[in-house]
Every structure is written in C-alpha cells, then in structure tokens.
Design goal:
The chain has 599 residues and is an alpha/beta fold. It has 3 domains: 3-242, Glutamine Phosphoribosylpyrophosphate, subunit 1, domain 1 (4-Layer Sandwich), CATH 3.60.20; 246-429, Rossmann fold, CATH 3.40.50.10490; 439-588, Glucose-6-phosphate isomerase like protein, domain 1 (Rossmann fold). The chain has an 8-stranded antiparallel beta sheet with strand order 3-2-4-1-10-9-11-15, covered by helices on one side. The protein has a 7-stranded antiparallel beta sheet with strand order 5-6-7-8-12-13-14. β5 (88-89) and β6 (95-103) form a beta hairpin. It is globular and about 80 Å long. The chain starts with a strand and ends in an 18-residue tail after the last helix. It binds 2-deoxy-2-amino glucitol-6-phosphate. 2-deoxy-2-amino glucitol-6-phosphate is lined by residues 291-294, 338-340, 343, 346, 389-391, 479, 595-596.
C-alpha cells in the first residue's frame, strides 16, 4: 500500500506536495516521488528512504507550477530503488502517474506494450498503466477518454492520480484503494487520507469504486462502468487531535500507549450508546474476520462471547476466510474488526460474507473508511488517529467494544446474575485509572527491557483469556524491535516448543491470579527446569511468582474477563523500550506500513 497526494490550486505546489506526502508516510516509506506541471512541462523529483531524508535530497524549488502529484511507496512489485519509485512517466514524458494498489495482469500488458515499442524504466506493475494511456492517446487524442480505455484493460486494484502536460488539471480514478478529494478555496486536493490536507480544508468527498474525477477549475465525477455523472455528497471531516503531533513524547507509539486511559473512557461512552441502536436479526452463528492485531482482538472477543453469551465463535483470518468459500448464510453474524477500515483482506472478507447474506457488524476506528460504508452496522471506537504502525490504543478499544457487546447482550440471557454483570461494568468504569497505575510503573519495565535487547528470540506465553494477549505481545515486540518473537498457549509448550528452551530463549509469561494461575506456574517450572529465563506479568501482591520468574512486572488485580485489557499494557511498553534501546525506527518499522490496502 502507498500514500497518494495531488494538488491543483494557487499555492506553490512543491512545498505543499512534500508536506502532504509526509503526513501519509505512515502508509509506506520505502521511497517517495513528486511531479509538477509548469509551463507545459512535467518535472519529476524522487528519492529513496523516508521522507525526512528525501526532503533534504530533492530540489523542491524545481517543483514549480500549480498542479502536482506525489507518492510514498511500500513496494509490492520491484525492489526499493529510484527507478521503481513513483511517479511513473510515459515514453514521451507528457504523462505522469501515481498509483496505490496492484495490477494483477501487468505482465501480459507489459509484453504487449514492449512489442509496440514502449520502453520501461522500472520493474513495477504501475508503469504499465501510464504506457497504456500513452498508447490509447495515439488512437483517441482525448486524455480522459484514453485513461478510460486504458482502465478497461486493467485487472486489479488501483487508486490513481494522473497528469498530462497539455491538460490543466488532474484525473483521479479509484477501484479498491482509498481516495478522497478535498475542496479548498479555489484549490483541490487528492489524497489517500484526509489527514494530509486537513490544515487547508475539512470539506471532502470519498471517490467510490469505478468513479473518475476530472479536476480542472471544478470537479466532475462520473461512474465509468455505468457511464453516468455522479453527484458526490461533500462531508466535513473533523479529525480531533490530528494536529496535536508528538507533544512531549519521543514517538507516536508511546504517546498512543499513554492515551489509552482517555481513549478507553471515550470508547466506553460511545459504544454504550451505540449498543442501544443495534437491532440484530436472529442468528445462529458468529464469525469474526480481521488481520494482525485486530485478529488478536477478535480471538480475545471469542472468549468473551463464549463466557457471557455461551456462543461459539469462528475466529477467521480475513485473508483465509475470503478464499475458502465459507459456509455463511443470512443466519450468520459476521463481526469485522479493523483499525483503518481499509485493510484489503478484511474488506474482501466482508464483501464475500455479504454476498452470502450475512449481517455485517464492524468495529472500526476510522469513521469515513470503506469498511464503515460497506457494513450493516459499525461500532466506532474512539481511539483517535493512530499514527504508530504498531497498533496499541486501537487494540484496547477493540477489546473494550467486544467485551461491552458481550456484556450488553448477556443482560438479556438468564445465565448471568445482575450483580456479576454490574461487577464487570464497575471494573470497566475504573479501568482508565487502573491503566494509569500500570503506565506510571514504566521505569520498572524499562529496566527489564534494557536487559533484554541482546536476545534474538523470545516466547510469549499465556492461557485462557490471556492466550490471545500473548500472541499480541509477541507481535508488538517482533514488529518494532525485529526480535523473532512467538506467542504460544503456555500449556502447548510441552507439546514441542519446549525443545526451544535454553538460556537464549527468554519466556514472557502472563501469569495473573486467575483460575489457571496454578497451571501456568507448572508451565513456568517446566521452563525453569531447562534453564530458561522468565519474565512474568503478575498480579500485585503475588510473592509466589518470584520463585519461578527472574523478573516480575506487577499489575493490579482485575477479573480474568477484564484482564486482557490490562495485561497488554506492560507488553506494549516492554516492546517499546526494547525497540528504543535497539535504536529501531519505532513509528515506522522496516518493511511495514500502517494500512495494508493490498493482498
Ligand atoms: C498491528 O500492530 C499491525 N500494524 C498490523 O498487524 C495491523 O493490525 C493489521 O494490518 C490490521 O490493520 P487494520 O486493523 O487497520 O485492519
């Protein structure tokens, strides 16, 4: 996935393009490029690396003119090189284009274009598009018509912004990857995310699939499949806190970890009010679809649903679900969870489920995202914009939403007494203060992390409600510190993985005083007996644990059903401090991007 930005107006384009694309570099930061149209000529500047390096290398002053496009890349086809970075140009240098998505049939198109004499300068799938348009222009002189003819030959997903040296504007097209048009005072913005043009306008509309926008002195939108003009509804986007920046924090990830008491309080209020608006048809099956961290939230949610609703839940990786021809019908409740609401696998899983008649409830953190538009009902988590690629506050908001969902509907079942449900509710109402207490103990966690940075591997172990938290803790560590970390059921250790245990394979156990505590102690003993180093996340006041663990991180007692929302906090901080010590780029880890809009 990549970030796309375009501008047409009366400002100096170069500096604006750099500013806009820098705000999108959470979407991918292998390389970046810019093209502007000035006095009938297109000028291109490109760089490899992150925007903070590129902005020093490129010559922004050369990016003159009132029309420009920009791109920040997360490579899918072709190595991270200058040649593969966007914008890509036609042979005659008259057309420049930036793309987010994947063209599935690019090889066959490339061979056809090579035979016609086109010369390619990159290994990318994207470059075939600009040569296709150039080729079509030889037949139909009209720029927009040539774009439409070229698109008819493409298979795959794309968000495109295209300029031509003889066209006083931009052409914008979308199939699959997100794209919005911002409407300023006699100026227009195009972007993958509203975040990039918010300082200039909060009025925008979403380009929907198969729509083409011609941006000249006005914006005209048409559906190129139906061949009809489209009137778009202009929305006012209010992204609270986006301009807040880092504040006193060194990284967005740490800031977002510390925002959790507040984001959970806001999410609690929002979801509690939304639950009253949800009217579910009768269903006989629950399936969840998600990716990455959101998947671990759904796995935790399945424990909540079984405990409070006595409902079995099929927890699916969206990427697997979408291709397995799932057994879904109109009696299936599908819960889709996604921070961004733009993850390609999760979107396609939702579409597959909808095709089969399922009712789609989504849990999403971006109100204007594609997933929200395509769901039957959406719970809007209130985590605010999450910039750190490693998800933290969005994850705990997802957990809270799933737990509140289960508790709300449990009220209507006669299996749980009111006092018990009230107890959980009170714990959740006090959760923000409990988390603040854990966050205040960061220095103990930092000290333990300092002794951990030399390890190359680690196991995260938990049971019951905390097994999914072990998986999520491992993901946090591996994605920002690059230490190979795996989550395991603590009980499963003896069925093979225990062969890994030696002094170089540290084990992080989540060993809270719950009904499986004694069992986890046995698992810890199995590790200790083989010389394994143990860090334990334990319940305040537990002295027994010190007989087993080399290091202990204490957290306050909460019921085991609420404990996932608390136990993840020290693991987030642990991963952060290890990565900090290792000098990793915490907010933009290598090879990753915040939104995975490609398969
Ligand atoms: C989480 O830390 C990762 N960045 C990644 O696994 C992420 O959770 C996954 O790509 C799903 O993203 P989504 O929630 O926006 O769908």
């Amino acid at each position: 996935m990549c970030g796309i930005f375009g501008y047409k107006g009366n400002k100096d384009t170069g500096a604006l393009l750099v500013e806009g694309i820098t705000k999108l570099d959470y979407r991918g930061y292998d390389s970046a490029g810019f093209a502007t149209l000035d006095k009938g000529k297109i000028h291109v500047e490109k760089g490899v690396g992150k925007m903070k390096e590129i902005s020093k290398k490129i010559n922004v002053k050369k990016l003159k003119g009132k029309i420009g496009i920009a791109h920040t890349r997360w490579s899918t086809h072709g190595k991270v090189t200058l040649e593969n970075s966007h914008p890509h140009m036609s042979c005659d240098g008259k057309i420049a284009l930036v793309h987010n998505g994947i063209i599935d049939n690019y090889q066959v198109l490339k061979e056809r274009l090579l035979k016609k004499g086109h010369t390619f300068t990159s290994e990318t799938d994207t470059e075939v598009i600009v040569h296709l348009i150039e080729d079509e222009m030889k037949k139909v002189k009209d720029f927009k018509k040539s774009v439409i003819k070229a698109l008819e030959q493409l298979k795959g997903m794309y968000a495109l912004v295209i300029i031509h040296q003889d066209y006083d504007g931009m052409i914008v097209v979308r199939r699959g990857s997100p794209l919005l048009v911002g409407l300023g005072e006699k100026e227009f913005f195009v972007s993958s995310d509203v975040i990039s043009f918010l300082p200039y306008t909060n009025k925008a509309f979403v380009i929907d699939d198969n729509e083409l926008a011609s941006i000249t002195t006005k914006v005209e939108v048409e559906n190129i499949v139906e061949g009809k003009k489209v009137k778009k509804k202009i929305q006012k986007f209010n992204i609270k806190g986006i301009q807040s920046g880092l504040g006193n924090f060194q990284h967005f990830m740490l800031k977002e970890i510390y925002e959790q008491p507040e984001t959970l309080r806001k999410t609690y209020a929002k979801i509690s009010s939304q639950l009253k608006q949800l009217h579910l048809k009768p269903f006989n099956r629950v399936v969840t679809v998600a990716c990455g961290t959101a998947y671990y939230a759904t796995l935790t949610g399945s424990y909540f649903f079984e405990k409070f609703l006595r409902l079995p839940v099929d927890v699916e990786y969206a990427s697997e679900f979408r291709y397995k021809n799932p057994v879904i019908d109109d009696k299936t409740l599908v819960i889709a969870v996604s921070q961004s609401g733009e993850t390609a696998d999760t979107l396609e899983a939702v579409r597959e489920a909808k095709k089969k008649g399922a009712f789609i409830v989504s849990i999403c953190n971006v109100a204007h995202s594609t997933m929200v538009r395509e769901s039957d009902f959406t719970f809007h988590t209130q985590a605010g914009v999450e910039i750190g690629v490693a998800s933290t506050k969005a994850f705990t908001s997802q957990l809270l939403t799933l737990l509140l969902f289960a508790l709300y509907f449990a009220k209507f079942k006669d299996e749980h007494n009111r006092e018990q449900l009230v107890m959980y509710t009170n714990e959740l109402l006090g959760l923000s203060d409990t988390i603040k207490k854990v966050l205040s103990g960061f220095s103990d966690i930092e000290k333990i992390a300092a002794k951990f940075t030399h390890y190359k591997h680690a196991l995260f172990l938990g049971r019951g409600f905390l097994y999914p938290i072990a998986l999520e803790g491992a993901l946090k560590l591996k994605e920002i510190s690059y230490i190979h970390a795996e989550g395991q059921s603590a009980a499963e250790l003896k069925h093979g993985p225990i062969a890994l245990i030696d002094k170089d394979m540290p084990c992080i156990f989540i060993a809270l005083k719950d009904k499986l505590y004694e069992k986890v102690l046995i698992n810890m003993e199995e590790v200790k007996a083989r010389g394994g180093k143990i860090i334990a996340i334990a319940t305040e006041g537990d002295t027994e644990i010190k007989k087993f663990a080399d290091e202990v991180i204490y957290i306050p007692h909460v019921s085991e059903e609420v404990s996932p929302l608390l136990a993840i906090i020290p693991l987030q901080l642990f991963a952060y401090f290890v990565a900090l010590r290792k000098g990793c780029d915490i907010d933009k880890p290598r090879n990753l991007a915040k939104v995975v809009t490609v398969e």
